[in-house]
Amino acid sequence: MAYQIIPLSISAVDNIACPHCQQNVIDWIQEQYIQPCEHTLFIAMDIGFEYITDDFEQTMQRSVDDLHAHDDQVNMFAEITQSTYPNYLIFKSDLGAQGYFRYIGFTA
Questions:
Q1: Distant-in-sequence, close-in-space partners of 28: CB < 8 Å, separation ≥ 6
Q2: Which of 56, 87, 95, 104 is the least crowded, having the fewest Cβ atoms under 10 Å away?
Q3: C-alpha–C-alpha distance, residues 74 and 26, integer Å
Q4: pLDDT tens digit string along 57-103?
């Protein structure tokens, strides 16, 4: 397994910081709340990607465009965990809608 899942016990409106540099990659104070740092590989929700690096997308079995075109049929967690990226962390947090989650990938 190339990834490690880390469930976060936080609310949907809490900031999320990078485990390496401590920058808030989800920062609700900012107008653009997505603030990826150099360690961020992707920020995704069950309904699609908010951010993804080219390096990570190239390791996925399907392109982001393909996933977004078929978002009603996609299991986002399954898609990101099938990546061949060598080692990465996935922070999983509640999205605020029942049954939906946010996934943030960081370099290990």
A1: 13, 14, 15
A2: 87
A3: 23
A4: 999 999 999 998 887 788 999 999 999 999 999 999 999 888 899 99
Instruction: Count up the domains in the chain and report the number.
Output: 1
Burial of 102 (0-12, 13-18, 19+ CB in 10 A): buried
Mean predicted lDDT score pLDDT of the chain: 94
Residue 23: predicted pLDDT: 98
73 backbone dihedrals φ, ψ, rounded to 5°: -120, 5
Among the listed residues 32, 88, 34, the one whose alpha carbon sits nearest the alpha carbon of residue 57: 88
pLDDT at residue 1 in the model: 62
Average pLDDT over residues 13-22: 97
Range of the domain at 19: 3-107
Please choose, from the candidates 86, 55, 61, 59, the residue with its C-alpha nearest in 3D space to the C-alpha of residue 74.
61
